[in-house]
Amino acid sequence: FQVKSENKKTIWNTEEVPEGSEFDDTWDPREKPEYEISFKQHVGTEDVFFGMTGKDPSTACCEDIVIKIKLPETKYSDITLDIQDKVLDLRTPKKKLLLHLPYPVNSKEGKARFLSEEEILEVTLRVSRKFDFINFS
């Protein structure tokens, strides 16, 4: 068994380290907020009444992931949100959430809005799958 590495003193390759592990901080005393993940798909009358596009209610046919995070006693200006292709990292002065996403997402096309009356941050992310151009064309 031989490890191919540029530096002989390294004990693992960068490909072996999962994405988002640099955010893990087990010593951080902030609590994890409550959150809910749901999936959203865009359907039209051809889907609902005729079933012409072949979409079904499974998550494999959903285009977006919607994450609702409860942040009581938090101001919009206190929220730091970082989204990678497979990881959502949220930090506030009192809460911290590191969430490994169920599907890879397009991190450049996400939307977030803070519902101040409900104290909920709603993040909508577009799912990025390899063969979506075949499934949803």
Automatic annotation (TrEMBL):
Biased composition (Acidic residues): 16-26
Any one annotated GO CC term: cytoplasm
Region (Disordered): 1-27
One biological process term in Gene Ontology: axonemal dynein complex assembly
One Pfam family recorded for the sequence: PIH1_CS
Transmembrane segments: none
Any one Gene Ontology molecular-function term assigned to this protein's record: protein-folding chaperone binding
Ranges of residues in domain PIH1D1/2/3 CS-like: 32-127
Family: Belongs to the PIH1 family.
Protein name: PIHD3 protein
Source species: Chaetops frenatus (Rufous rock-jumper)
